[in-house]
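Recap for those who missed Tuesday's class. We walked through two folding examples back to back. For each one, the amino acid string is listed first and its predicted structure tokens come directly after. Nothing is annotated here on purpose, so try labeling regions yourself before you check the end of the notes.
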Amino acid sequence: MDVFPDFGGVGGAADLRSVVGALLTFVLVTAVLMLILCAIIWAISGASGNYQAATKARTGLLVAVGAAALAGAGVAWLNFLLDLGTRL
């Protein structure tokens, strides 16, 4: 038995895929830019002795890494489930 989701059964599925792809791209680009910005601010504020700003920048860096990881993991999880559906 070959079971696979019928993506053509929903009207506008191609539009939905392009919107989700664009949103994922936006999330990843924003996360990378925030990662770079927070790393720079962390380095500058840590070197200048402003430890409160360094702590906030480090928190921002960890949030950016988490957002990028969740976005990537979501794609990997969806691909895994679609692959699993073809083997059931």
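Example two. Treat it independently of the first, because the proteins are unrelated.
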Amino acid sequence: MKLLLDENVPRPMAEIVRILLTAHDVVHVHELAGWAGTKDIELYAKGKTEGFQAIITNDVKQLNRPMEVEAIARSGLHRIQYRQNNKHGGLVGLGTAIATVCAALPHAIAELEGADGQRLVSLTAVDPSRHNRLQITDPKASPPKHWPTS
């Protein structure tokens, strides 16, 4: 499958997706001469013309804009979105996006390869909140089973 990463997808994501999906052709908009700055309405038609089968984006508002929805529908391309939570910016935000894509994209691609038509995919975000991402135990206060007592 030939996948196009939208301009709003961080460039490091392209390398990660290439590692995940070695059997697929993964291209970031910034890697194509003259494609940077292409409006979404034009991007879907241009992507279809160039042989892409899916576009990956983190523009979750795209489906609320009638002209963009029409452009997506007309293209026939699969649309894969993930949410990059602005509340968690910087490294945490990028890490969350990478985790979301790594955990779900291979499953999405497998489903799309067998699809009988266009699909809209939303990858479920991994929760970056500290209390949901890690647990820290003080073995003195809450010793695990078989923890030696001195």
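Answers for example two:
The mean pLDDT is 87.
The CA atoms of residues 41 and 68 lie 5 Å apart.
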